[in-house]
Amino acid sequence: MIAPGKNEPVRVETIVVPDPGPHEAVVRVQACGVCHTDLHYKQGGINDEFPFLLGHEAAGVVESVGDGVTDVAPGDFVILNWRAVCGKCRACLRGRPWYCFDTHNARQRMTLTDGTELSPALGIGAFAEKTLVAAGQCTKVDPAVSPAVAGLLGCGVMAGIGAAINTGGVGRGDSVAVIGCGGVGDAAIAGSYLAGAAKVIAVDIDDRKLATARTMGATHTVNSAETDPVEAIRELTGGFGADVVIEAVGRPETYKQAFYARDLAGTVVLVGVPTPEMKLELPLLDVFGRGGALKSSWYGDCLPSRDFPMLVDLHLQGRLPLEKFVSEAIQLDEVEKAFERMHHGDVLRSVVVL
Ligand code: APR
Ligand code: ZN
Ligand code: ZN
């Protein structure tokens, strides 16, 4: 599925996928979720390296591997991740590879039949029957999981669960508030529930979203279009505020709510992605007067090789209802329609199933 130019409708085209070079793999895609980031690529909001090969929340089967590939083999069922990290830089050596910028994504290029080079979205490009990636972008998981569910762990759902568990450090008995209950916020709710949080307070301006949030594990809901969410969260936590507040919208006003809705020693996790022009103003005294931590979560601060198989296993054991994130299965040529439904807030995730 190609995004040919800024704001032009996406379309299906024949592409040429070269054989994998050293440390690369060709993956036969089985499912790929439709994410906001794909829409941002199409709108030219990320960069202008058109044409893009969209799609990046994907799972499939390794078809062939190049020289030097040892971790995966043809026939393996894998979830794709955005970046093959280097393993050698300071971030990697300190155990924080999500901050690795020396990434080793596939260097060979996929092209259109006329030789035009394609830019794969987030180094993946999986709205396609096959895609070429770095072997380090492939994580083997239990093939008993449905591909549509597995693919979602490659991006938005991992970002939300990881924001709660990895970044927020949510643990047994904690109180958690999640502001914004789309796919990412709902995943943060499911992650908090899984981690044993005693209270999981869902905040949104849309009652439909709050109803879904309850099915993900929210114990309380607050419609912030009607009620002051800071007051409501304080009331629900004995006047203290939540131990962890997760902001999953990406706006200054919701970040402010998160800032004031936490316990004095609580943690704020920003996982919603702001735009470059957004600014935040806070009284410095209020920052001084509160301990705890202000954190942001990159890709759920995940380690794919640790987190993807673990979350798949928890799902297969019936402890993580990842299937609830799949709102509909669609065909490759329905991605444009799926963007519209996403824009109107009708779906958590549309997933292209191939
Ligand atoms: N207060 C509370 N909730 C809000 C507000 C607000 N002011 N504005 C929007 N929301 C809610 C919407 O009603 C919706 O339920 O936030 C949710 C956003 O969900 P989605 O649009 O489905 O986005 P999602 O995929 O969950 O991603 C959320 O995380 O990774 C980032 O780029 C992503 O910034 C985006 C954010
Ligand atoms: Zn590195
Ligand atoms: Zn995504």
Automatic annotation (TrEMBL):
Cofactor: Zn(2+)
Keyword terms, alphabetized: Metal-binding, Oxidoreductase, Zinc
Top-rank taxon, per record: Bacteria
Domain called Enoyl reductase (ER): residue spans: 5-354
Keyword Oxidoreductase tagged: yes
InterPro entries (UniProt xref): ADH-like_C, ADH-like_N, ADH_Zn_CS, ER, GroES-like_sf, MycoS_dep_FDH, NAD(P)-bd_dom_sf
Molecular function terms from GO: oxidoreductase activity; zinc ion binding
Pfam family membership, one: ADH_zinc_N
Keyword match Oxidoreductase: yes
Family the UniProt entry places it in: Belongs to the zinc-containing alcohol dehydrogenase family.
Protein's UniProt name: Oxidoreductase
Organism: Streptomyces naganishii JCM 4654
